[in-house]
């Protein structure tokens, strides 16, 4: 396991104070360029609105092919948040996904987004190409937790913490609920992904334009991943008591003796390791 090594201030006299860095949401999208991301498929259907700081997926033709935006990097266990606005069509946020050369351009797991005159499948999970729905919410539940009208954004927090997936939408625990009344109302328990082929390895984040939609109109923004110091930071996302917090790195900040200069060292929790058929990041 990769470890952050610190030398004793008492022995070396180089560091006189340490403080664990605060929890931080690090943006993965800067709102103005494709830095860290790339388009797969027809570039024409994706653009960036710098005023809204959003990726924009739009097409007015039913012959629109599948078109994706993928993260350049792969991610294993994480907590990520994003906001989406779906005015028309079918879309979603892929994770642990693989970019490929099929017509769909992708294989992996998706937090679904669909417009059928109302927001549908809000917080549902779909694995492509199979088995399809692994967590599917009723229309009544989707209507309950979705913001309306379709001109407003939905806020999602997604956590992959081996071996479970959790999804919070607009502060409702759509996947990962434990309260009996909420489960009766349509929420779902955390989904175990560790036995599901197609999502057992780290993968890309992906934003989808679904083929055959007339029109297709979706936006994604505020895409940020959770960082912090796992040994001291909260086990759950602030304000969301059922949404586990997974930190992609840890850091220690020190004051360099004699200079007053703050220094920071950071690194991933651990190197990715194999466990059976799955890759994991030790925590």
Structural class assignment: mainly beta
Count of distinct structural domains = 1
Query: What is the N-to-C succession of helices and strands?
Result: HEEEEEEEEEEEEHEEEHEEEEEEE
What do the pLDDT scores average to? 85
Unreliable runs: 1-20, 253-283
Number of continuous helical runs: 3
What CATH architecture label applies? Sandwich
Shape label? globular
Written overview of the protein:
This protein is mainly beta and 283 residues long. The chain has one domain (24-231): Sandwich (Jelly Rolls), CATH 2.60.120.560. It is 6% helix and 46% strand. The protein is built from three helices and 22 strands. The strands form four sheets. Strands 2, 4, 5, 7, 13, 14, 15, 16 and 18 form a nine-stranded antiparallel β-sheet that branches. Strand 13 and strand 14 (164-169) form a beta hairpin. The relative contact order is 0.24. The model is unreliable at 1-20 and 253-283 (pLDDT under 50).
List the helices and strands and how they pair.
Layout: H1 9-12, E1 15-20, E2 24-27, E3 37-40, E4 46-49, E5 54-59, E6 67-71, E7 78-88, E8 90-99, E9 106-115, E10 119-120, E11 125-128, E12 132-135, H2 139-145, E13 154-161, E14 164-169, E15 172-175, H3 180-185, E16 191-192, E17 204-209, E18 216-227, E19 249-256, E20 262-268, E21 273-275, E22 278-280
Antiparallel strand pairs: 1-19, 2-18, 3-6, 4-5, 5-18, 6-17, 7-13, 7-18, 8-9, 8-17, 9-10, 9-11, 11-12, 13-14, 14-15, 14-16, 19-20, 21-22
